[in-house]
Amino acid sequence: KNEVEQSPQNLTAQEGEFITINCSYSVGISALHWLQQHPGGGIVSLFMLSSGKKKHGRLIATINIQEKHSSLHITASHPRDSAVYICAVSVGVRGAQKLVFGQGTRLTINP
Amino acid sequence: DSGVTQTPKHLITATGQRVTLRCSPRSGDLSVYWYQQSLDQGLQFLIQYYNGEERAKGNILERFSAQQFPDLHSELNLSSLELGDSALYFCASSVAKGAAGNTIYFGEGSWLTVV
Which of B11, B46, B104, B113 would you call most buried, defined as having the most Cβ atoms within 10 angstroms of its Cβ? Predict the structure, then answer.
């Protein structure tokens, strides 16, 4: 079993729909990152969370440390949101931490 | 633009050869991370340097090595290349020592194809 599991693996929705991508992890972490990877390959960091909730534009990320679970929400989805969304957790000791990645969720928003 | 620069963007080489991938971190960032993304393994952490010193090691093969220079740029050396080394190699940087509590900025990646 992977240390970081994302669901769903693939998601297709219509423009305007509310999107939720889930991430569960099985290890102790110091932070959780949500990343976005576009078809060209580049990766953009969307959020870094250690507790609670963060919002940036139409994107909202939440984390529940006790349940070891995080969600990424997209409101009023748009075709330009089509990308692979990757959850990654920081593990290790202070000053020597690494990211462990989920397998990614491929999101397609149709117009 | 993340501010992290990777070269080359694309590279095709033969099995058994050696290549060097280069990364310039964002201005002011002291940590450099290397990741490998392959179709079958997904994204994997290879190695991290902080201010010239190795800080964390992941699933990096013995045929691979890296270093961070005094000007903070980093190089990932891949030798005795095999077909399975074909992947997208990402460099990333952050201000502080660890991946926790700090936004990580990724480069565009270097596509390596081994034929």
Answer: B104
pLDDT digits (tens, 9 = 90+) for B29-82: 999 999 999 988 889 999 999 999 999 899 899 999 999 999 999 999 999 999
Q: Which two tokens stand for residue A42?
A: 């580049």
Distance (Å, rounded) from C-alpha B115 to C-alpha B113? 6
Q: How far apart, in whole angstroms, are the C-alpha atoms of residue B78 and residue B85? A: 9
Contact call for B99 and A50, based on CB within 8 A: no
Strands lying side by side in the sheet with B74-78: B5-7, B19-24, B74-78, B64-68
- Give CA–CA dist A42/B101, Å, rounded: 22
Residues 12-41 of B with CB under 8 A from A: 33, 35
pLDDT in tens, A8-29: 999 999 999 999 999 999 988 8
Rg for chain A, CA atoms, rounded: 14
Find the closest chain A residue to B57 by CA distance: A98
